[in-house]
Amino acid sequence: MNAAPAKAPAASAAPAVPPNASEPEKVPAKDAAHAVASSPAVDINGYMQVEYQWHADSKEQLLQGVTPLNQNRFVLRRARLLASRAWDYTSLELELDANTVNGSAIGINRAEAAAFYRGGNDPKAAPLAQLTVGVFRVPFGRELPESSGKRWFMERSLLTRALFPSENDLGARLTGQPGPFRYGLSITNGEPANEKIGFPLQDPNKNKDFTFSVGAKGKPLDHVTVGGGVSVNKGKGFHSGTPATKNSIAWTDLNENGAVEPTEIVSVAAQAAQLSRSFKRWAIGADLELNVDTPIGTSSLFGEVIAAKNLDRGFFVADPVLLQNDMREFGFYIGFLQQITPYGLVGFRAEFYDPNADLSARRAGTVLPEKNSVRTYSPLIGVTLPDRARLSFQYDIIKDHLARNSRGQAADLSNNAWTLRLQVNL
Question: I want to staple 242 with a disulfide (CB 3.0 to 4.6 A). Which of 133, 225, 274, 371 is the partner?
């Protein structure tokens, strides 16, 4: 193979990061002199997260079917492998994910093709504009653009997981970072991966979801960093119709004697097909982060608040066509992390999420307001070998209205949980 002319290696060509992302994506350096006969310099990165999970509501039983109720188990939460390649104005990234959350599964987590413009000769400068197409993180809020390998808390907040069951969607995204400011604009199918019902990464209606965010991050003092932004999401959800049915008969064992009697057989009339319908949904959010360098390590205070309508796709799935009324979601979280030397960390996060602010229930013939809000308090402790491995423990104290007491009133479900995780980086 012919060798390329000897030149000094070029500096890393890092694409722009989504708005409000805590850290840029890691991308490879360019190959020396772009030698035609040389193999392309593909950068390989990744990490693996293995957990032991304990849940107070685990039972040694099965749901209707074969889904186990036991959640006290070892789990391969994520095994991510990222292959990336960057040139002067373009880049490619392919991230695969393997896990055992619901049995063994391997698939695409992200697949991004990007073209960018830096506006200068500094190869380390974040691009002023970057166009990305493929499967990517939606530029909404603080948690969605953040890599799961960088986040200390085990999972994103319930608020974010309910509205966006996965960080990733399929479409096109424009991002950039002019100075301390960041912006992001995306057009996607609006069907993120991991949603409970629907068509993950597909699109059952012709409407596309629109997401826009702006933010800034700077250092007003040498030891203080402040960042934040606002985000908007707007699109349409989909209510599946029903197929037509034929005339049929049904038997109901009214006296429960196990015998078929003439009075227990009834006819069921044929039903016409019901058309599918789309409905409007939206969300607006704001986030803020403060980092202070202290003698023992960095102190981080962060939070986010989101108001939405008909956007829940991962907790209490919103379907205003079925319920005959809109669902208004609201939630927030606030968290704190304290680094203790480069090898230790403690943290705490408090969350609130209400999946339906207009929920009501009928009691004794009277319609009364009902609550389905969930509050979660999560202390965390961890140790780390910088850039190599982490061992962390998180306890989730969950206060909700998902159970019923002896009088039929909403009560707190005993569903606290803790997780012990080891993460090793490639």
Answer: 274
* Residue 10 C-alpha from the chain's centroid: 35
How far is Cα 314 from Cα 166, in angstroms, rounded to an integer?
9
CA pair distance 40, 98, nearest whole angstrom? 26
pLDDT > 90? residue 399: yes
103 backbone dihedrals φ, ψ, rounded to 5°: 85, 170
Say how far apart CA 379 and CA 13 lie, in whole Å: 38
What mean pLDDT is predicted for residues 300-308? 98
Q: What gap in Å lies between CA 301 and CA 347, rounded to an integer? A: 10
Secondary structure letter of residue 356 according to DSSP: -
**How many Cα atoms are found within 13 Å in the side-chain-facing hemisphere of 30?**
20
DSSP, res 32: G
* CA 384 vs CA 124, 170, 336, 342: distances in Å: 28, 34, 18, 8
> Residue 171 and residue 190: Cα distance in Å, rounded?
9
Per-residue pLDDT of 194-234, as tens digits, reads: 887 888 889 999 999 999 999 999 999 999 999 999 999 99
Kindly tell me if the per-residue pLDDT of 107 is higher than 90: yes
